[in-house]
Amino acid sequence: MTEALGGGPLRALSPVGAVVSMVGAGCPFIRIHRPFVGFRLCPHPPAAYPAPMAVLRVEQAKKAFGKTQALADVSLELREGELLGLLGPNGAGKTTLVRAISGRVRLDGGTLELFGRRLSGAERRDGLGVVPQEIALYPLLTARENLEAFGSFNGLKGTALREKVAWALDWTGLAERSREPVRRFSGGMKRRLNIACGVLHDPRVILLDEPTAGVDPQSRERIYEMLDRLRAGGVSLLLTTHQLDEAEARCERIVILDHGQVIAAGTFSELVRTTVGPERVVTLKLDRAPATAVAGLAATDEPATFRGQVGDVDAGLAALLGRVAAAGCAVEDLEVRRPSLQSVFLHLTGRELRE
Fold first, then answer.
1. Per residue in 216-266, pLDDT tens?
2. Structural domains of the chain ordered from first start
3. Which end of the chain, C or N, has fewer beta carbons within 10 A?
4. Rounded alpha-carbon distances, angstroms, from residue 194 to 90, 114, 173, 284, 320
C-alpha cells in the first residue's frame, strides 16, 4: 500500500502539516488525521512503466513479384492493445504485407514473429484474426448462419459457438436482423458482420484491411466503437486505410509505406515535426490586393487571396494581421489550419496519381 501511488510512502497533509498513519504494518487501511487537504509522495523517483510488449514484429521483410519489388526490407512492430495505422498509396505494399502476415504470401526474405514465436510459410497463425477489404460473406445465408459458419471454420462448436454468435450479434447491433439473408443488408451492416466473422474466435491480434470502405459516417462511427471495445480487452489492431482523417484521429502510431519501403513511422505529432513542421497555415481573403507585398504572405490562384504560416497562433497571427492593416487592406475571410496527416502524407509520397 505504501508504494501504491508511484514509489514512495504515502503521506497526507493538513493545514498544520499533520500526517496520516498506517494502521498496522502491511495493512491496506489509512487513518487520516483531520483536517485533510491532499496527498504527498515522499521524494523517491517513481518506477518506470514498462513499454507495451510487441505482439507482432516484422523484420526486413522482402517480397518480389517478377521484377516488381513489393516489399523491400520492411520492418515494424505492433504493440499490445495498440491501434497501428498502415498507410500508403496504391501499390505501396500494404496488401502484400498483410497477406504475408496472415500466411497467404511467402516472403522472399526477412522474419515474422507473432507473440514472440517466429512464423514460417503458411503455418497456422493461432491468435491472429483477419478482416479482408472484400466482403467475405455468404449472401444467401442469414447473419446468424454466416457467424456459425465462420465460427466453425475457426474451431468453435457447441456452447462456445452459440455464445460467441450471440456476443457477435449484440456487438454488431444486428441481433434483431439475425435471421435475415445478408443480401438484404446495407453496406454498413455487411461491414460490421464482416468484421465479426473475422474476430469470432477471440484473436489477440487482428489485421483490418480498409474496414470502413464505402460506408456512411454513422456506420463508420459504429465500427470504431466496436474496435474500441476490442482494444479495451487488450486486443491489438493493425489497420490499413485510405481514410487519413480516421488514421490521424484514431491511431496511436502510424507507419507509411511507399514503393515497398517504410518511409516514415511514429505518432502523428512525430510525423508532423519531422516533415511539414508544426506551423499553422493561414489563408486570408482580402478586400483587394495590397499595393506592396506583405511580409509572410504569398499570393494564391484565387483573387486577393493570400497564404502564409505562423508558429505561434496568438502572437504570429496578430503580427500578420497588423502588417495587412498597415498595407491598407481589410480582411474579408480568414482560415487557420493546423498540419494534418494528409499534408504529411502528400509531403512524403507526392501528389502524382497511383493507379
1. 999 999 999 999 999 999 999 999 999 999 999 999 999 999 999 999 999
2. 1-49 (no CATH), 54-272 (3.40.50.300), 280-338 (no CATH)
3. C
4. 23, 23, 13, 46, 51
Identity (one letter) of the amino acid at 281?
V
Q: What is the mean pLDDT of the chain?
A: 86
- Alpha-carbon gap, residue 121 to 80, rounded angstroms: 24
Q: Which three cell numbers stand for residue 171?
A: 456487438
C-alpha cell at 189: 451492416
Give the per-residue SS3 of 2-28: CCCCCCCCEEEECCCCCCCEECCCCCC
Provide the CB-side half-sphere exposure for 161 (13 A, CA).
15
pLDDT tens digits, 79-122:
999 999 999 999 999 999 999 999 999 999 999 999 999 998 77
Spatial contact of 181 and 174, defined as CB atoms under 8 Å apart? no
Q: Which of 1, 43, 36 is nearest to 22 (CA)?
A: 1
